[in-house]
TrEMBL record:
Protein's name in the database: Twin-arginine translocation signal domain-containing protein
Any one Gene Ontology molecular-function term assigned to this protein's record: nucleotide binding
InterPro entries with a match to the protein in the record: Gfo/Idh/MocA-like_OxRdtase_N, Gfo/Idh/MocA_oxidrdct_glycsds, GFO_IDH_MocA-like_dom, NAD(P)-bd_dom_sf, TAT_signal, TAT_signal_bac_arc
Keyword vocabulary terms for this entry: Oxidoreductase
Domain GFO/IDH/MocA-like oxidoreductase: 186-312
Pfam families reported in the protein's UniProt record: GFO_IDH_MocA, GFO_IDH_MocA_C3
Transmembrane segments: none
Domain Gfo/Idh/MocA-like oxidoreductase N-terminal: start-end pairs: 57-173
SUPFAM superfamilies recorded: Glyceraldehyde-3-phosphate dehydrogenase-like, C-terminal domain, NAD(P)-binding Rossmann-fold domains
Originating organism: Flavisolibacter ginsenosidimutans
Superkingdom of origin organism: Bacteria
Length: 391
């Protein structure tokens, strides 16, 4: 028996055996309880895709963030074969080759870029370097999939757009808080199917754990990553555009600050944004304040309000209720439903490989990819600075 039903029945039992409870229950009709429409379900198990032969070959340049592992796994799930790696940091190379012992170690970036058998380059280099690697990859006839933030200035964005248009190659930023979260993927399916009517607004909370002792020096200087809205905010702009169906949006207000880490004056630990698109409204909050007592790096939440209901995604944890990640709550005019989404397929890698082979845009359109980043960059540039110091 699931915990929610147990708690609900315990409440009714306890209430019925006390004077206060009898008074409370007398205020409800029998119909109110009989018509209760709560369900707990498991999402349908995803179909497995197996490939007899590699569909594409890919290589990696730059592994400064551990997101590279989810990037590699996404492409492997899509039928890609990992061929080679180039990175300068020997400690990071040692960890990567332990996980992928078959990978060939290239002596230089050029060795990979000039390999005609490679169709796709992946990178999680230091953010300031990612756009340059992507530009060189496209100029060498390669498609490119990069960790977020894939671009950290408006000047970089202008140049990336120019080269992408000139070469016709794919420049895909892995917005992993959508692409690598199964409950968020399921939310997309439900919204598309009309489960909550027309989307009105998204509210996205994206806390992260700072883990000070494990971070490299570049992490604490925003010249390397563009600022908190450019960095972890880019995930949220992607989701806002995707779920509201907006292709135009205005930043109504944005603010950033370093409210608790004076040792790192060039760092930002908090930011939020209010925006309005031509398909819906949005609010975004990002921060580095996940407490150590939480069992995951961040209690990410996505609420999607529609004209006929709403969805709440609890991405990484459902504190004190369900174990693990990938939780979705759906409330509409028919029912209230909890959905365990651990069986949902993550299609981004497979679709990206499809796009590389077929020259299509099924994983994400290039316009959407760049526009999500453009909004993040503009919000960062326009952000007011938080100042909690009293006069």
């Amino acid at each position: 028996m699931n915990r929610s039903n147990v708690n609900r029945r315990r409440f009714l039992r306890d209430a019925a055996t006390t004077a206060a409870g009898m008074s409370l229950l007398s205020g409800f009709s029998e119909k109110a309880f009989a018509s209760e429409k709560f369900r707990e379900v498991n999402a349908d198990k995803a179909a497995e895709h197996r490939w007899d032969e590699p569909r594409i070959k890919f290589s990696v340049i730059g592994i400064n963030h551990a997101h590279i592992y989810s990037q590699v796994e996404a492409v492997i799930r899509g039928g890609g074969q990992l061929v080679s790696l180039y990175a300068k940091e020997q400690d990071l190379v040692a960890v990567f080759t332990k996980r992928y012992p078959q990978v060939k170690l290239a002596k230089s970036e050029d060795e990979i870029l000039n390999d005609k058998t490679i169709q796709l380059i992946l990178s999680s280099a230091i953010p300031i370097d990612r756009a340059g690697i992507g530009i060189r990859a496209m100029q060498h006839g390669k498609d490119y999939m990069v960790d977020k933030p894939g671009i950290i200035t408006l000047e970089q964005l202008e140049e990336v757009r120019r080269v992408q248009k000139q070469t016709g190659r794919i420049y895909s930023i892995m917005y992993s808080e959508r692409f690598e979260n199964k409950a968020t993927t399921k939310a997309g399916d439900l919204v598309k199917a009309g489960a909550i009517g027309k989307v009105i607004q998204t509210v996205i909370m994206a806390p992260h754990r700072i883990s000070l002792t494990t971070r490299p020096a570049w992490f604490f200087d925003k010249k390397n990553f563009g600022g908190i809205l450019t960095d972890i905010g880019s995930h949220q702009f992607d989701q806002f555009l995707f779920f509201t169906g907006s292709d135009q949006a205005d930043i109504l207000a944005s603010q950033v600050g370093n409210v608790a880490h004076p040792k790192y004056p060039a760092f930002e630990d908090f930011g939020d944004v209010m925006l309005r698109g031509n398909g819906g409204a949005g609010y975004i909050r990002v921060d580095w304040f996940t407490p150590d007592g939480l069992n995951t790096w961040g209690d990410g939440r996505l609420t999607i309000l529609g004209t006929e209901g709403y969805i709440e995604v609890r991405k990484n944890t459902d504190i004190a209720v369900h174990e693990g990640a990938n939780h979705l709550y759906l409330v509409n005019n028919k029912e209230t439903q909890y959905m365990n989404c651990n069986n949902v397929e993550l299609p981004y890698g497979r679709l990206l490989v499809d796009d590389i082979i077929n020259r299509t845009e099924t994983a994400m359109t290039q316009k959407h990819c760049f526009y999500a980043t453009e909004l993040a960059l503009k919000a960062q540039k326009a952000a007011q600075k938080l100042n909690y110091k009293k006069a």
